[in-house]
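for the recovery benchmark. tokens below, seq after
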């Protein structure tokens, strides 16, 4: 997970005219909290956004970033948990691995690159970011078909670069705008996801109830379908507490290619909805998880929201990486 979008939002709302350094994990060996392609932005006041570790390396990274601001030259720093003379061992890093970090001065040219990334992500268009390991040079090319792929090192002659696929934030569409949807939206926004809330009922899906939602919709129609396809919806949660609304929502999401669909309520309710719309399980274009959510216990809206967002998160992100 690489929430570059959130970092750039903070950069834009801060004083982007002061000196900044972009910190990037470009390689790891063994166990590491963050993997290649993780980013962090540090300014001349020592303020920073993002993490390149679990919080144990950041103070030293800030010190090295200040040196980069002074010299205007990029710098690489290696934190090795097994080097008894190294800084990582002295500060008690517990991941048991080796982390290679690139610190690049945010030059005027690099500001333009970051601005292009920011603008692209605002339009929900991803791309490819290349960063030279031995200099401040970076470049970005838009690529609307970019998928979440692990960053990798690429060598061309004497130049080694980190290639990162910058993908848009995951987009989850929630059908239902009742009070129990509030914690689900809040959890999704904490994760940096793009959230749409859809509910045709006048009392629901109101701005005052969901101020952090990115989109509030009142109709389940062709316009919503066009919006969903254009904005790249990846997951849907159906929790309208209405057989009619949930049936309509289930039919709608079958028109999309989704990685996750969760339907709130017991299996019996899922069967009832399918019977109502004459939709056999074998005819489902996208598998539906009903009841939605992992079995983590708890019955409050916050617990249910946590179980659903965890299940959705599991579908969105691979579990292959070994984290400390």
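predicted aa per position
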């Amino acid at each position: 997970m690489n929430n570059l979008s959130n970092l750039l939002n903070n950069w834009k709302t801060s004083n982007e005219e002061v000196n900044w350094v972009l910190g990037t994990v470009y390689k790891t060996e063994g166990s590491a909290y963050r993997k290649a392609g993780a980013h962090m932005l540090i300014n001349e006041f020592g303020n920073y956004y993002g993490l390149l570790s679990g919080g144990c390396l950041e103070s030293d990274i800030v010190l090295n970033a200040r040196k980069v601001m002074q010299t205007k030259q990029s710098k690489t720093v290696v934190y090795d948990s097994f080097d008894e003379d190294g800084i990582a061992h002295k500060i008690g890093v517990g991941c048991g691995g080796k982390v290679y970090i690139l610190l690049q001065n945010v030059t005027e040219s690099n500001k333009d690159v970051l601005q292009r990334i920011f603008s692209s992500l605002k339009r929900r268009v991803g791309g490819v970011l290349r960063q030279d390991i031995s200099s401040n040079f970076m470049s970005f090319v838009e690529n609307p078909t970019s998928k979440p792929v692990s960053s990798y090192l690429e060598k061309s002659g004497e130049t080694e670069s980190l290639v990162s696929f910058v993908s848009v934030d995951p987009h989850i569409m929630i059908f239902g705008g009742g009070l129990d949807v509030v914690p689900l939206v809040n959890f999704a926004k904490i994760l940096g996801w793009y959230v749409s809330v859809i509910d045709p009922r006048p009392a629901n899906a109101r701005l005052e109830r969901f101020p952090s939602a990115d989109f509030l919709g009142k109709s389940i129609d062709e316009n919503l379908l066009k919006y969903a396809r254009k904005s790249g919806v990846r997951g849907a949660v159906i929790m309208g507490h209405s057989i009619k609304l949930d049936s309509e929502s289930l039919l709608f999401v079958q028109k999309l290619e989704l990685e996750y669909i969760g339907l709130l309520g017991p299996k019996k309710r899922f069967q009832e909805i399918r019977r109502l719309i004459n939709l056999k399980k074998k005819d489902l274009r996208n598998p539906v998880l009903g009841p939605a959510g992992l079995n983590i216990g708890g019955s409050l809206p916050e617990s249910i929201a946590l179980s659903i967002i965890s299940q959705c998160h599991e579908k969105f992100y691979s579990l292959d990486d070994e984290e400390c």
